[in-house]
Amino acid sequence: MQNNAVSLCPGVETAVPKRILIIGAGAIGSLYAAHLARVAEVWVLVRRKEHARAINQRGIRVTGHAEFHAHLQATTDARKLPDFDFGIVATKANQTREAFAPAAHLFARGAVLSAQNGLGSEEILAELMPSGHVIRGTTFMSGTRFADDHVHYELDTATWMGPFEPTNTPFAVVEELAALLNRAGLKAEALRDARPAQWSKLIFNASVNAVAALTELPHSPHFAAENEFSDLGHLLHALLEEGKTVAAALGTELHEDPWAMNCIGARTNHPPSMLYDIRHHLPTEVDFLGGAIARAAQRAGVPAPLHTALYRLIKAKEASWSWKNENRLEAVTDAVPDRSLETGPRPRADATRQS
């Protein structure tokens, strides 16, 4: 950590505030940035100049579960930034490398939390930042970004975090960031092993996002209903149970029950991130979500037909946006083996890794 920063632990006065960089200021990144600006020096690295301008001029207004206005700094150019004690990457998983690479050198003595969906982002961060520490993170809080300077705070559940084992991250560093988040008004829990929490969120997230993407329903009470034969909750329950079977095959005991998580989230009517992508014809995170479960099941030798089917359907949905050959005869080619589960990002998902 930086030598000029004094530890922010409960009950200890801070002479010099910690310096924190948030990479990605969508709904989750904006919530982290605004809250942490109450207890630390916060910068935000964003893609669009107008986004940075809005934050620099007006700050970030939080409504919903909390109501306050935060002042902080934003930029699109990592070359203009100082070194940082902590970073939080809150981009989509499939944007990790592009978003973090320009800022990786700023954490030579710092630690970076992945607060992203799915499996595989921590490996990318560690590859780009060989001398820093990576923290495995999972968050279940939710919000909606109404504007570049306005985020609505909807679900105030915790961020779970723990050391990413390959980078030998000290647990004291994880505890320090968790303490900062709690003091800022968010909820955070430091775990010595965060893989059970990460898999709990993965199973929940992969199931809800895939169904939302294909039905175009937000996370609504439909996802928990099981009274009628046609109710969508039956499918969600089966997907979640299948994911639990894969986790068990990897030797991972879950931190939370994904079905209980689904029932809580189904009351929010919140549109999951993959639904946003489908509606706007953007690449989804499915390779890091359902695709990661399907590949893990394949390696573990256990069946995961539901997650595999939904993964392939979403990949086909993405292909439909650019495919232009309707009613055009295709040339005849020899059949090729099915390699669909071996394509795309291949984050590891065994019992000993952080994902």
Structure summarized in a few sentences:
The protein is of the alpha/beta class and 355 residues long.
Structural notes for this entry:
This protein is of the alpha/beta class. The protein folds into two domains: 19-192, Rossmann fold; 197-323, N-(1-d-carboxylethyl)-l-norvaline Dehydrogenase, domain 2, CATH 1.10.1040. It has eleven helices and twelve strands. The chain has an eight-stranded mixed beta sheet, sandwiched between helices. The chain has a four-stranded mixed beta sheet with strand order 4-3-10-9, with helices on one face. Strand 1, helix 1 (27-36) and strand 2 form a beta-alpha-beta unit. The longest helix is centred in the middle third of the chain and has 21 residues, at 195-215. It is globular and about 60 Å long. The two termini are 24 Å apart. 49% of the residues are buried. Residues 1-14 and 345-355 have low confidence and may be disordered.
